[in-house]
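Everyone, carefully examine this protein record:
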Amino acid sequence: MKLKTAALLALLTASPASAQFQGPRLNLMLPLTEPDTQLLSVSTAPPAQAGSVYVISKEKMEQAGYASATDALGLLPGIFVRRTNAFGRADANIRGWGSDGQRIALMVDGRPEKMAMYGCAVTQTLPLNNVERVEVVEGPSSALYGSGALGGAVNIVTRGAQSPFEGDVEASYGSYNTRLLRVRAGGTSGPHDFFAAAERRTSDGYTDNSAYEGNDYTVEYGRKLGDEASVRLRNKFYAGTEHDPAPQDNPAAGATWFDYRRGALDLSGDYRPGEIKYTGRLFTTYGHHSFSDGWLSDDETYGGMLNADWKNEDGRFAKLGAEHYLMMAKRGGSSSGAWDKREYSLYGAGGTPVQNLAFLDGALRWAGDSGNYGRWLPSAGLAVKPWNEVEVYGKASKAVRFPQISELYVFGVSNPGLEPETAWGYEAGAKYAPLEKITLRAAAFMTQGDNLIQVSGGKFNNVGDFLFRGVTGEGQAALNEELSLNASYTFLDPGVRTSGRPAYTGTGGLSLNRDDWGLSADCLYVGKYYAGDNWTSKINDFFTLNARAWWNLDKSLQLYLGANNILDRRYVIYATNTSTTGQFLMPGFMMNAGMKYSFGG
């Protein structure tokens, strides 16, 4: 208890040192309304899309000490992050949809980041060692981002070198022998730029069988080809092992472990001879997985993307594009086999201001896969600014998720006759800025669909309709140039599908940035939380509080101290880890301390 009290006092009474470094002054939630900002950088481009859109900067993620890119999403309204372990997967559910990433679009620089076997995301393979920002669109979004975007879309934008020579070295140590070592370096020279990053994160774990080890490596090279064209090559590889404890409500299931080896290679190029920008990309993602239950598998995805973008100074834009993906998966062991499927689409999007009072945008995608004819997926939105301090908007869109290889072929419960899941999403919202540095937002949403794929009668089947409804509210206040506050509230009514979907979530955050020291704190409340459908198997409500302080000793050297679950609350999260579903115990009070040395720049 004395240790926890001392750590909390140290965080809340952080004093300045002797630095001249000017830290960033950013809030957690930055709605994407700036006319020059490109939304989800590669795969689409509406700069003023109606809807709930957010950007989380690298500065905010580093200040808060997040472990992965998706871990940073948990404080956004409408999003709840499921975990089976404090150090491994962090799977975001957006407005009730997630399913380990199966029902949201997850991208890296606009490239789909999914496992071909399951169509899910392995989120621990996405650490923050080279992330510039994370972009989020909430609500059904398949017209813009393709199959799987029932809940929304997440795009992780990687960073590149901005100066002739730059980089940093970071190391930290914390509770349960948790260690981090991260090295990043890059530079520019004439038309060339280069950036590389490596990270190793390990922990003995906070309870029996909760250890973690992960190693991540990325390399990026770009070259300008005159004033009109450029090419870029990105390469990434992750190797790690996650140990998960047995669920608290089913200890007989036993502990499990999961070993992942995943990588990606992509080549992109763009050409802008005039007002239109042409972009092309070829990529592959691949993985080898070995699990404690004897599971062995390999998967590969090969894809190509083409698009053309036009935008003028008045804010009007148009976009056309085409995508094609080949997904292949192999299962090892006694039940070995190999399968593949294709997904393809054509799409267009556009938007225009309306008499300087409104912005109208829309999109239309034709998408299909190996077993299904193409589906039309429309989207339309209107944002209106009737007064300087008020904005209102409405949006409607259709989404689809095609069945994945694991649901179609691999297991005894697989069903090759599955139909795609479809959903319509509707949203209305408003933004009110009564004062220059205070912003309030609210939104109401509904997602209605059919053909939800679940195990029923011993097989995967399209089990029927679903209806999710909810509201979100949020506020931000920049009290001065150094201190900002934010808070959000979400109510979700998932109908009878309550399993793992809390009805109430609330968040709060504080950011204090002085010239040579700073403090970041956040809290999360989760209520009306159930393990079963139909509001059965109640899980206790919980509240967590985290904080982190940093001191800039000079222009290059920063020290920091962080504490998670400061109140040492015991709580569980209902989640699935491929082998087991249940209530997984989360860690109590944890702390860590570290240093970061920056050079160049």
